[in-house]
């Protein structure tokens, strides 16, 4: 039975029920592109899958968004993508059982194969004659947009690695590392790395490892041990003092964390408790046969819009993809010295044992024993010198690491100062900054909960900004965003309360003739003359930003 195209929320509800209910056949769902066109050959799908699978099309927009809200996470389609849902998808509604196909990476035959695989059969038209086997090799480089990589296999041939088997939350450029091994399913000249489920048991209680900073606000940071596992670091876990978390961490930072496990509680992480000298448990690999996805000298970056739109290029050499850190030479010296010390220890142990056996043997000559003792003494002196050199190299390494961190922090501070220095303090400029700050501080999934309500600028608001420096202006904008969204009610540091007509606890609240209530919210804490925001809550859920004032100014 064929279904008409899904174009209304009611159609989407019926389709969601169909997807989650037991079915006789797989259901192939194809979405339209933004312009309304279908990028997969739907006529071919219906022709080849006639009697084997149902094929449905859905319009991208309101219907696809409504369907997304009705299905399990990551099980939706939109903007030209398609997928096949197995007949028993509702029994185990995991998105991994329904591979999402994008038109620029997959074709109609892939969708046919997906549906046939869910029935245990394959059509003659879609059968592949290419040899499929498992293979391994070393990553050589990425193409410009990072969506494909060049891999030299163990047999010397070079193939292209794709992200066809990887879920959307694991980009290929994160999963593979230039110069490191990888493995996967080789289909012709394409290697398809397979995702590896995160094994958090690899991190025992008290161990140290690396985490990627994925999101930063003033009060907390979200970090990833794996793209599918996140943890929240609050200010006490980051050791920021009175500063915002964003002054210490930035998105993309790779940081040391200490793992804490407690019975009945989820795994917790702390940067404050991390010991910089503790050995690290390697980060988890993201693909089968791959290397750890995080290292202290690896930056996790996403391709820019310009790179994404650029034409395909030759493989990027290792030096361009993974820049050599400034302390690379020092790290190499330490590694070489460590290997030499290990070798010297083995030599000394062998000589010590030989001297002991020689001293106890009646047939050994005193001259030979003396020679061995001299050699042993020489090696011990050499070992002491190597240890001293290694200690010096480690001190240099510590200094280099500290310099790099301070340089990164200085660059972040300079970037933020540059952004603040370009703030236009006109009414239009402040409105732009409020919207930009709201967009930066509010995750897409939280914007429905904390929307920008209707707001106006009071007659004295712009003039009250003139006395603020760059840092104070930035804080004031963030406070305004919290007031407009209503989030200040959940942030203790805002110390939100209604303004009274006097300083007594029994004094009446300030209320305007139009019924508006005056609210007072903290912009700064623990500084002389700390600033406060006075704003009005008007009938109809409208906010009017009043003035930025000093702590002692209690006028509306």
Describe the 3D structure.
The structure is a single chain. Helices cover 32% and strands 19% of the residues. It is α+β, with helices and mostly antiparallel strands and 556 residues long. The strands form 4 sheets. Strands 4-5-6-8-7 form a 5-stranded mixed beta barrel. It has a 5-stranded antiparallel β-sheet with strand order 11-10-9-12-13. Strand 10 (220-226) and strand 11 (229-234) form a beta hairpin. Helix 2 packs parallel to helix 4 and helix 9 runs antiparallel to helix 10. The relative contact order is 0.06. The model is unreliable at 121-130, 302-329 and 359-364 (pLDDT under 50).
Layout of strands and helices, then pairs:
Blueprint (H helix, E strand, L loop, with lengths): L8 H12 L6 E5 L10 H7 L5 E5 L3 H9 L11 E4 L22 H10 L14 E11 L6 E5 L4 E4 L10 H4 L5 E7 L2 E3 L15 E9 L3 E7 L2 E6 H4 L15 E7 L7 E3 L34 H5 L8 H4 L6 H33 L5 H56 L5 H15 L13 E3 L3 H4 L5 H16 L11 E2 L18 E6 L8 E8 L3 E9 L6
Parallel strand pairs: 1-2, 6-8, 14-18
Antiparallel strand pairs: 1-3, 4-5, 4-7, 5-6, 7-8, 9-10, 9-12, 10-11, 12-13, 15-16, 16-17, 17-18
Helix pairs in contact: 1-3, 2-4, 9-10, 11-13
Name the beta content range.
Answer: 15-25%
Uncertain regions: pLDDT < 50 for 5+ in a row? 121-130, 302-329, 359-364
Task: Report the C-alpha radius of gyration, rounded.
Answer: 31 Å
Give helix % range.
Answer: 25-40%
The tally of helices reads: 13
**What best-fitting shape do the alpha-carbon axes yield?**
flat
Count of β-strands: 18
Rounded mean pLDDT is: 80
Oligomer: single chain
Q: How far do the termini sit from each other?
A: 67 Å
Tell me the strand order in the biggest sheet. 4-5-6-8-7
What structural class is derived from the secondary structure elements?
Answer: alpha+beta
